[in-house]
Amino acid sequence: MKIGLLGCGTVGSGVYELLKHQRESLASLYKEDIVVKKILVKDIDKPRHIGDVEGLLTSNAYEILNDPDIELIVEALGGEGTAYEYIAYGLRNGKHVVTANKAVIAKHMKALIDLAEENNRALLFEASVGGGIPLLKPLKQRSLLNEFSEVKGILNGTSNFILTKMTEEALDFEEALAIAREKGYAEADPSDDIEGADVARKLAILASIIFKDNVALDSISYRGIRRITKADIKLIKDLGYSVKLLGKAVKENDRLSAIVEPVLIKSTSLFERVRDAYNMVAVRGDNLEELSFYGEGAGKKATANAVVSDILDVVNGSYRKETILRRNWLKDYNRSLIEGNYFFRVTPKLTSDYFEISKVFTRNAIVFSKRVENNDLIIITEASVAEAIDRVIAELEKAGFSFFFGRLEN
Amino acid sequence: MKIGLLGCGTVGSGVYELLKHQRESLASLYKEDIVVKKILVKDIDKPRHIGDVEGLLTSNAYEILNDPDIELIVEALGGEGTAYEYIAYGLRNGKHVVTANKAVIAKHMKALIDLAEENNRALLFEASVGGGIPLLKPLKQRSLLNEFSEVKGILNGTSNFILTKMTEEALDFEEALAIAREKGYAEADPSDDIEGADVARKLAILASIIFKDNVALDSISYRGIRRITKADIKLIKDLGYSVKLLGKAVKENDRLSAIVEPVLIKSTSLFERVRDAYNMVAVRGDNLEELSFYGEGAGKKATANAVVSDILDVVNGSYRKETILRRNWLKDYNRSLIEGNYFFRVTPKLTSDYFEISKVFTRNAIVFSKRVENNDLIIITEASVAEAIDRVIAELEKAGFSFFFGRLEN
């Protein structure tokens, strides 16, 4: 089995090293020598620290995609445009494809799965969600026997690391973000991690798999954690809750609600224990009351593990019969299944603002209790429809108030 | 694919119902009609509530085991002797075997796996550990790429339910046990669940899989939770810990330590959150820092799910290449890798006993701190070798003291 590796960054080099390290043991088990034949890199002359790869490097993707010797492509480029083209080209050209690319899969899952099926090839992406946690494969299998009704998850290590640091060391958001950057958990532009876009992608993939239908990425609304302050964390802790950035999708017959937003989690919940860059995913089905998976959501070794597991499923032939998007039943995307009570902290600019702030809620027909704490207005709403909360947020933003909010999660 | 079902109790009838319920959807996916042809029962005439099974029942196992039409046997009898014979007979006779029987697998894993390989047939037992949690399959696959160093788990629903009730409702052991019996969580004789034997079986299976060598059941020592009192729970809670019955196996080169015993778990641990009859398993490997699985450890639907998942792996052919006991590297079974600090509560019979109790520890070269609480002597030991703790327990028992102990788990 000859492999073509697209990309030699963290994921790509991790896959190369793991395959090399386990080559003999896998060869004896699978009676098949699994070996990387070519590696796509931007700069062939850049020094690399993954052993003797000199003869393997190329800067021309089509040298790999058109190589008749290569049966499987590992796409480890990241990003959207080029990666999508290469994956599609590879599948059309009769190559199996394994990828860790959540951006491409979340956006083009249906088209790529159709393409893989037409060409009778595997398209596997275990590493795209939850890093090293064996997640998609067991869920695919269990979804054959279960009607799942719910999935929720802490799916972004960067934001969870920031919230953990803020909670445990009483840091401000920017201080915690700076540490995340130092540790390599946050990128130069951390927007996708912090604003919820990254979680939305992973949630789209997870929900598609357990509900066995294509959950479109743009049906998932998301709200991030950038507004949160040290004082919010303390106040929420005193109320007996922790703040987490949670992705959640719920299905009821042909209705689906999916959202990513900050939530207040009770201190008795399993999710409350998820610290630092760890991830956790929980599902509910008609045969499985509650099932959770916990582990490293990223990292070179963990991700390489997941990618190579997919490669072994191709070698083994066990990816077959795992067709996942077998239905077409989701008709009604709205957020009504995830209504809830919301916590709001709103900081007035003048004392006279208290009345103005309350009016924003009343105007939108939201019932709430309120109190003043450290001059801030603390509001806990009754169960409120998502659209009303949207309007409140928009009005508070427009009026220029500083605020934070989170849904009270059961 | 014709299936022969041995046993029609909770597991057997659950498997029958799930296969029947999903028959059409599985047939369309696998292009194979998966159907139960015969069911072994003790009493053919007993009324059953699983639909029209009249023509399927037999009280003669060999009518199933020798039926050339039947390709796969589901062993759902439980117990040891007969079940082992039928499984071995089935494999020799060219049948695939799927079982939920932890007693047989823990004791005869190596012999049965060898037999399955000789006959080129599948032997799968996902449901034997962790009920509905997809556990053995992902661990088998990850063990191909990882050197695991540790596994630990809350693996017995009955004992965890009792500990949860005692903790949350301040009940005595016997009161909590009575509720467990009422709810169907505890059998008439709950010894195996409460004394740790059941956990030892599951730990033997888990450890064999992740360490890729046969971990003999009799190399696992176990201690149960029967000694614990309501007062112990409260005292331990005040110290910031919870009591759990934990199975743990640690490997270092060719040394293995495995033990089942009550442990004191810090209130910040994920394990501390595992309530009622739920299970949790955590592993550590060289490529996976920490990976945990959480879910229902038993129950008709959850167990049937796991059994049918195994059946689908046989239909799919994906069980091949999952040979697990590929090594023979464990040479040195002792408990030195799981040494730790121990908590002891010892109730003296007379005031003069305090000195006598302390002497038991000193005599065994254990360093400890002590204090008196509600007339009981509370002792926290320094890290102590397992054999010394064994001797202390034996001496306290011999002297007739009431006591409870648990290892402080990190």
Oligomer classification: homodimer
Low-confidence stretches of chain A: none
| Average pLDDT metric of chain A | 93
Number of strands of chain A: 17
Describe the main β-sheet of chain A briefly: 11 strands, mixed
Largest interface: A-B, 49 and 49 residues
Radius of gyration of chain A: 23 Å
The number of helices of chain A is 14
CATH architecture of the largest domain in chain A: 2-Layer Sandwich
Rough shape of chain A? elongated
CATH homologous superfamily (4th level) name of the largest domain in chain A: Dihydrodipicolinate Reductase, domain 2
The helix content of chain A, as a percent range, equals: 25-40%
Structural class of chain A: alpha/beta
Topology-level CATH name of the largest domain in chain A = Dihydrodipicolinate Reductase, domain 2
Q: What is the distance, rounded to the nearest whole angstrom, between the alpha carbons of the first and last residues of chain A? A: 48 Å
Please give the CATH class of the largest domain in chain A. Alpha Beta
Task: Based on the model shown, name its key terms.
24% strand, eleven-stranded mixed beta sheet, elongated, six-stranded parallel beta sheet, Alpha-Beta Plaits, 3 domains, homodimer, 17 strands, 410 residues, Dihydrodipicolinate Reductase, domain 2
